Amino acid sequence: MRLGFAAVLVLNLVVSQAFAADKPVEKVAIAPEKAEQSVAASAASPIEQTVQTVCAACHAADGNSVMAANPKLAGQHPEYLLKQLKEFKDGKRANAVMSGMVANLAEEDMKALAAYFSSQKPTLGKAKSNGKGSLGEKIYRGGILATNVPACAACHGATGSGIPKQFPRLAGQHADYTLQQLRTFRTGERANAPMMQAIAVKMTDQEMQAVADYVQGLR
């Protein structure tokens, strides 16, 4: 019996589908490291994701910035961090970059970020030339009598640990960052700490550089 053309087509289709059903499906292999990264990303909390995508570029994921112009945040008092974030947002502390970063953060987000970075372990630093007996140490521990500059230790502690809710931790902070903040306090560019403005206007660049270097080595 001869099959018509249409019947042959139907028969071929049935046979091909039967073979296709028996053919194993090929699986796409996923590299183990990429799988781990995917799992880690999905497991990260919203705040950890914010840290990774927004904060880490300048401050590092653990808050220990490797760029001397950007502050270390690790181990800083959460109250101080929260205050700064709020003041970046409302403009009390002027900074074009940070103002943009915090613009869309709710207060709960800022509290969570402050708690996250305060819980990170800060890395230690080392003074370049202002160690024991240096000008930096003298200013930090005894102030500058001639110009009525108080000792830094009076507010920030003998070891630079600061006083929670009042004064920030300074120990190990990048000297470049500390120096820049002292200068902006002096010029008025940073105006969210009147006490520091009053102190900075009495200091020379040499004195600022010395104490900033000393602070970098505190521990």
What does this structure look like?
By secondary structure, the protein is mainly α. The chain has 2 domains: 37-118, Cytochrome Bc1 Complex, Chain D, domain 2, CATH 1.10.760.10; 135-216, Orthogonal Bundle (Cytochrome Bc1 Complex, Chain D, domain 2). The protein is built from 11 helices and no strands. The radius of gyration is 29 Å and the shape is globular. The termini are far apart. 27% of the residues are buried.
Write the SSE topology.
Layout: H1 5-22, H2 32-43, H3 46-59, H4 78-90, H5 96-102, H6 107-118, H7 135-142, H8 153-156, H9 175-187, H10 194-200, H11 205-216
Helix pairs in contact: 4-5, 4-6, 7-11, 9-10, 9-11
Q: How many domains, as an integer?
A: 2
Indicate the CATH topology of the largest domain: Cytochrome Bc1 Complex, Chain D, domain 2
Low-confidence stretches: 1-28
Please indicate the percent range of residues in DSSP E strands (runs of 2 or more): under 5%
Q: Which class of secondary structure composition applies to the elements?
A: mainly alpha
CATH class of the largest domain: Mainly Alpha
Listing every helix as H and every strand as E from the N terminus to the C terminus, the arrangement reads: HHHHHHHHHHH
CATH architectural arrangement of the largest domain: Orthogonal Bundle
Indicate the percent of residues in helices: 40-55%
General form = globular
Give Rg in angstroms.
Answer: 29 Å
Distance between the termini: 98 Å
The CATH fourth-level homologous superfamily of the largest domain: Cytochrome c-like domain
Mean pLDDT: 87
Oligomeric state: single chain
Main beta sheet strand tally, sense and closure: none
